[in-house]
Amino acid sequence: MALPKRIQKETERLMAEPVPGISAIPHEDNLRYFDVEIHGPSSSPYEGGVFKLELFLPDDYPMTPPKIRFLTKIFHPNVDKLGRICLDVLKNNWSPALQIRTILLSIQALLGAPNPDDPLAADVAKSWKEDEKAAIATAKQWTQQYAVPK
Amino acid sequence: MHFSHSTEPPSKRRRFFSGAQPQEDDATPHLPPTAPLPSSSPPTAPPCANPSPPDTNPVSTSFDRATFESFVGETVSSDTISTLQEHCGNNVERAINLYLDGTWRALKRKALPAVRKRPSPKPACQGPATSHSMPESRYIGAFGAEGWATRSGGSDLVKHGDVVKIERQKIQPPKTKVQSRLGAAARRNDVIVRFTDRTGREIGRLAKETADWVSILIDQKICKFEGICVYAPDRLRTNDTVYLQLRCSLLRSCFFGRGFQVADNRDAGLFNQGESTEEKDLRLRQVALVRLFQEINLVPTRANSAAATHRREELLQAAEMENKKEKETPVAQSAAQGNPPSSPISDENEDGQELEQDQLDALYKKAQSFDFNTPEADPADTFAMTLRPYQKQSLYWMMAKEKDQRDKGREESMHPLWEEYTWPLKDYDDKDLPQVPNQPTFYINPYSGDLSLEFPRQEQHCLGGILADEMGLGKTIQMLSLIHSHRSDVSVQARQSTSHHSINQLPRLPTLNGASIAVNAPCTTLVVAPMSLLAQWQSEAEKASKEGTLKSMVYYGAEKSADLLTLCCEANAANAPDLIITSYGVVLSEFTQIAAKGGDRASNRGLFSLNFFRVILDEAHNIKNRQAKTSRACYELAAEHRWALTGTPIVNKLEDLFSLVRFLRVEPWNNFSFWRTFITVPFESKDFVRALDVVQTVLEPLVMRRTKDMKTPDGLPLVPLPPKHVEIVDIELSKAERDVYEYVFTRAKRTFNANVEAGTVMKAFTSIFAQILRLRQSCCHPLLVRHLSANADDEEAAAAADAAAGLADDMDLQSLIERFTATTDDAANSNAFGAHVLNQIRDEASNECPICAEEPIIDQTVTGCWHSACKKCLLEYIQYQTDKNELPRCFQCREPINSRDLFEVVRHDDDPDNGRSGEGSRITLQRLGVNNSSSKIVTLIKKLRELRKGHPAMKSVVFSQFTSFLSLIEPALAQASMHFVRLDGSMSQKARAAVLEEFKESKGFTVLLLSLKAGGVGLNLTTAKRVFMMDPWWSFAIEAQAIDRVHRMGQENEVKVYRFIAKDSVEERMLRIQDRKKFIASSLGMMSDEEKKVQRLEDIRELLS
To answer: Taking the model in full, what pTM does it have?
Structure first.
């Protein structure tokens, strides 16, 4: 199946005008599969970290949202152990007018503004709510441990 | 007017014999075949042993001044007498008419040109060559006739075997002028023929039926009759029937007695009565002769096909009809004849009824039987252009015509109007008749009643003709090639010796003492063309000639000061122009000047002072009215070769042709009375076949006509056509359409299967076919099948509901905005907002689609919340959400959206009227899915819009076999503000012509909606360059025929054809059937009706598979 024009265009644009702090590179053998790296936003617990994600565009994209997940371990109330992300635009609020770029920006924004009221990882959310400082420290530590390139 | 006189024998005798006077016959150099005898007669002919009374002798019939004066009742000057004599020959009767009605004065003034028309010196009187061998009379046959006794008596009076004399009753001529009018009719009715015994005692009279025509033959000195009594009662009583055998011999005199007043055109011009006395006698004679031949059962041994095609009876009928007509309206007739003929124009509308279109077609068809085996001629090497094969053929033909070469292959043919008869070998008693050596046959012209002993050769004296090719086949080029390829000897010599002057070349100015004779201009061709074409002629002439090989000049306006006489005369041959181009107006004005100077041709040293090598009338239908001054002026142009160019030799009357023939000086047809007698009269008496046949014989040797539709024997068009590109456009039916289609399809299939099971397919054939028709219609527009389909009703109801809810089908942006902002009272804001939205929507179109990333958006469609995307993407997204049982929401703002609340953006940038005004093109929003319920219409409009954008003046033709579909296309076109016209079978001929004219003349983007049935044949739509076939027909041949209305001769551009075929439907299957060409075979009539039905059933099975 030929790659839809939209995916081609999005890919080209991601390469040509990358968003600062975000990179997305398609696999050569599967152009619907992207290796994504997101830099942790400054003045957030994830600052300094580079988080790897995988992104897959399903067949009925853009009718359905892309499938995306963290590969790098991250301590975040909206990301579960498996790296799945809880984000409305990836679920009910998806619209075909959204793009890879906008989704990745949303994830970057999510790193800067964790939302423990709508958690995916219940334990992380709980610690975040109970002791935000400790949670942030853990997040920083995880970032140092898993996300900072050695 | 008829005049008779007591002291003279019946005047008509003289009328006939007077024509034989040599000066009449020799008036024209080319003798018509109808009067062939005198031309070949040696001067040594012995005096005629003519037994008739001296006054019938041609030579002795002189103009008797005394008789004339006694009639007019006053002495007349010799001047006048001689003028009259000149114009009437020796026909006293006519002279008297002329004198009494005053026409002679006009004649007198015109006497000079009349003389000028006959410039050739008259050879000495020559007697007929064959006369020495022709006895005074010769038996041709016998027939039975009835008579009735006028006296009583015994068997001594008359009995079986008695010879009786057949005599004419003496005519009692009326005495006075007034009576003579009535008398003319009365005398015609006098047909009494008596039979007498040896002593001259009258026994009885012939029955009227026989006497009717026998009397004419006797009166006109054609035959003599001898009677033998076959049966008479023993005791004869008055009124008893006597049976006679009449033996008929042709008189020698009938072969020589009569000559045509050949080409006496001036007569025709001056006397435009319905029918002259001459013509009437001629007609009577013709009828009588035909009757005679019928009675004695003599059939032609040779006759031309044209003549043979119509039976004698028809001939008789036509002539007798005229007779009857005349009798019925004697008053009108005599009134018409009594009219002073001084205003010939006034009766213009009297002659020549208009030809119906089909008659015109038939005539043209006959005239254009072009033989593709005609040899070709290559143009001279000074000609710079390349001729197409058919043009080379006409060049050959034209050169042959000018050089008077006969086709070698064609044997000398008999004049088409004549028939050949063999003299009988045995008489009525089966005894051998004395035969005349070398004279086994005689000839008769049943059209004119002329008789001849000589073979009437089909003469072709006109050294020119009519080139009547249809517009666009290059008449001008062909004539120019002729000008190059056939030059006069003088011209050729002059060219060869331009460097070294020969003695002949010494300039010798022509002497002008004989001012009435034009001076030869042997190098010059004169072209007379409408003023607007003068420049074109000159530039074409330049283009067609190698440099310096053709001198042309335009003789018009300021250039008219040139002294043509000196310039073109033979002495100046080396420097004379080869081509002079002038206008009809110039010809007329010079003609008028010369006429004012009493016909002195040389007076203004202009066009009429010269006898050109060749004259060409371009657009020669300009002289179709023979009475118009311009026509008359053109007739007088002197030239060796005469050509007429016209695409329409006959505009709407047969008389149109006469004028051309007259210009060409084709004998004898250029005589109007002749023309009238043989063409106009039969035509008006509804004998079209005969009239048109005669016209064909006139035209055949004279006209070269090719049409653009003609194909060479290889099937190639004369002029190759630009390419044609046919593309099948797949139409995806919308869901609503598909629903309707499936519904109809299921029904049709059910009906068919049920009938197959019940074995009643044949009976139900019509209803099955009707359902197939519905099915095909449903591919076009669901509304076409609405009364069958519940679904369509639903749809209609939905549309109605929408309308009731205030959702008009389409609205412009403003009204939408108003609706949107109805809740706010801020008018200014709403306006500003409206403008903003408008701009935004317009600008967004150039963005990419947010869903598929196409750039620009395809079929931009906006949601109720003003967000744009491709129509397809938007619909797909809504569908996707609906399928997931989600409420469709806007892809941008997540507002809930309604599929009824989608609007397609219609940009009017292709519309020349609305574009370019203000900052951008106007846009309107059109509600999706309601009005556009036909995918075909949507596609059509889309295609047309694209077309209009690229070609703002393109014309297209839209064909459909369903006129109701055309009616649905109309509003869509109107909405897109496309100019359209429509033609279908319900329109009158006149309305159709108006539509076609409008389409042809329209300058901008125009669409012609055409029903396949009404527009399949005949129409010429070459102004269009695109064809849309909205639905397929069973046979592609029919569609091809329709396409050929556009793609035919005259089409100068590539033609693109779009065939709209609904995908996955019966239409696609129809295409498959078309490919198998089954229906072509059936439509060619190669199958019986029953076979056709079986064939169609199989097709239906396939259609419903």
So the answer is: 0.43
